[in-house]
Amino acid sequence: xxxxxxxxxxxxxxxxxxxxxxxxxxxxxxxxxxxxxxxxxxxxxxxxxxxxxxxxxxxxxxxxxxxxxxxxxxxxxxxxxxxxxxxxxxxxxxxxxxxxxxxxxxxxxxxxxxxxxxxxxxxxxxxxxxxxxxxxxxxxxxxxxxxxxxxxxxxxxxxxxxxxxxxxxxxxxxxxxxxxxxxxxxxxxxxxxxxxxxxxxxxxxxxxxxxxxxxxxxxxxxxxxxxxxxxxxxxxxxxxxxxxxxxxxxxxxxxxxxxxxxxxxxxxxxxxxxxxxxxxxxxxxxxxxxxxxxxxxxxxxxxxxxxxxxxxxxxxxxxxxxxxxxxxxxxxxxxxxxxxxxxxxxxxxxxxxxxxxxxxxxxxxxxxxxxxxxxxxxxxxxxxxxxxxxxxxxxxxxxxxxxxxxxxxxxxxxxxxxxxxxxxxxxxxxxxxxxxxxxxxxxxxxxxxxxxxxx
Length: 455
Prior knowledge:
mainly beta; disordered N terminus
C-alpha cells in the first residue's frame, strides 16, 4: 500500500471511529422500570435499538454543538412517514419525554436526513419471554441429540431501520445440564456441568447444536432459562425437567497380556500364537449397559468364533489368520447402539519349525553350543533326546530352551543322538518330528572336558 492510500485509509478509519463515537455521545435513553438496555447497535443502519421495561418516564436525550434541535419519529421508513415530535431543550441538549414504543426517533440538524442517526425504542414488558411447559421432542433422534417441545410466548422484537429494512433483536437463552466427559489419560468419565447460551428458538434447536457441545450422557435435570433480556430486567423465567439419557459414548482399548514364544523373524504386523489379548470397553454407565464382543475370522465373517457379553473380554488367539474383534454396545432400553463403531484387527502368524542336526557343546560358548529348535507360533511343545541305547538324555517343554549337551551334570560324549519332538501349530494339527542330532568336539577339547569333570 503506497503512502497516499495509507493516508486515505487512515482518514476513513478515523472518520468511522469519529462517527461511531459521536453516535454514542449524541443520544441517551433513560426511564422505565429499569435502566434501559442497548440491545443492538446497528452501525450499518445507523440505528441503536434500546429495550426499556415499561414506558413510564422514558425519555431520549440528544446533545450536540447546536442549540437548535428538531425531533422527528418514524414508524417504518424515515423518508416517508416521519413526523415532528415536541421536545424540551436546555442549552445544547434536548429531550423527548412523550416517547412511544415501536418508533424510531431522530434529530435533524441539516436538510439531509440520510446523514442522521436514529434511536428505536422497544418496551420489553410487552414482549416478555414466558414459558408454560417444556418436554423432550419425539421427533429428534436422542441417540445423537435432544430437541424440545413446549408452550411459550416468544414474540419478535422487531424494529425498522430509517431506510425501511425490517430487523429483529435476537433473544438469548441459557440451557444447562450435567453430562459426562471422557478423560483419555485416566480412562474414565467424570461429571461436568455444561451451560449453553444460544440465540435461536429453543423449540427449533437441537442439543448439542455444535461439535464442541457435549452430548447428554447421564440422567440429569435440564434447565432452560430466558431470555437474557429478562434476566437483565430481573424478570427471567426458568423451567426444569428430568431427563433419562439414551445417548451412549463408548471407547475401547486392547492390552496384549502375553504372546507365544518364537525365535524366527516374522512380520511386525503379526503376533506369535498363542496370543492372549484383553479387550476393554469404557462407556457412560449406567446409560450404556449392554456390551457384546464378537470375534470372527476375516475370511469367514458369518462364522462367529465367540460372542461374549461383558465389558471385558480376554481371548486367546491360537490359530493362524486375521481376526476381527467388534464391540457392540447399546443403552439400557436398546434404543441407541454403536454397532460396528469399534473394531480391532488381530493377525496371527503361521507356525514354523526348524531343527538343527548338529551342535558342539562346551566348545564355543554362545555359538551353537545348545541344541534347540528355531520356531514361531508353537501352541504346544515337548521334546526328548535319547542316546543310541534309548536312554533319555534330556526332556523339555519350552521351545525356546534346549539341551546343553550334558547328562547328569557331565557333558555327553561326542557322537550321534536321537531326538523326538511333538508340537501343535496354529492350524490346530499335532506334528511329530524325529531325527539324529550329532554332538561334535575336537579330541583336544573333549580331553579337556573329561579332565575337568574328573577333578
